[in-house]
Amino acid sequence: MLPFQRGAPCTVVVCRGCCCGDRRKNPGFDHAWQLDRLRAAAAASGGTFTVRTTDCLGPCDQANVLVVQPSTAARQSGARAVWIGFATDDDATEEIIGWAEAGGPGVAEPPTALEMQFVKAPRGSRARGRR
Asked: 118-119 and 82-84 as β-strands: parallel, antiparallel, unpaired?
């Protein structure tokens, strides 16, 4: 975390449940690379964002699903989590990293191409298992 930040930084939640991260559902994409790349970028970010995984976020028909949660400060200013679907290419992964490094929801504008992958959060969504 940067010295001027208070509370939690922006967090990228990566679904790795029944469909997300499954080579049978999305063949040809290196799901392990995606998670490794996100974690490496977070480690190198100096605390500007973190990454965690969850077993299932819910909208399995839109796999791979990630949620970019705002930092504590951004959330207190009204920012809300942003759900991203169909994140099954290197460009989407890099755009997510760039946005999270810039501060994420409520701090930085998302890349236009990434906005086209925003999906609605499922009603009553809750992460079932966190890792």
From this structure: antiparallel
- Indicate the residue type of 97: I
Chain CA centroid to CA 1, Å = 18
Instruction: Supply the DSSP string of 10-45, one letter for each residue.
Output: EEEEEE-SSSTT-TTTSTTS-HHHHHHHHHHHHHHT
The answer to whether residues 46 and 103 touch, using CB atoms and an 8 Å cutoff, is no
Q: What residue has token string 């460009």?
A: 91
List of the chain residues with pLDDT < 50: 1-4, 127-131
* Burial class (CB within 10 angstroms; exposed 0-12, middle 13-18, buried 19+) of 124: exposed
Cα–Cα dist 87/66, whole Å: 7
Second-level CATH architecture of 10-119: 3-Layer(aba) Sandwich (3.40)
Q: What is the pLDDT of residue 30?
A: 86
Q: Rounded CA gap, 93 and 34, in Å?
A: 7
Q: What is the pTM of this model?
A: 0.86
The residue ranges of every structural domain in the chain are: 10-119
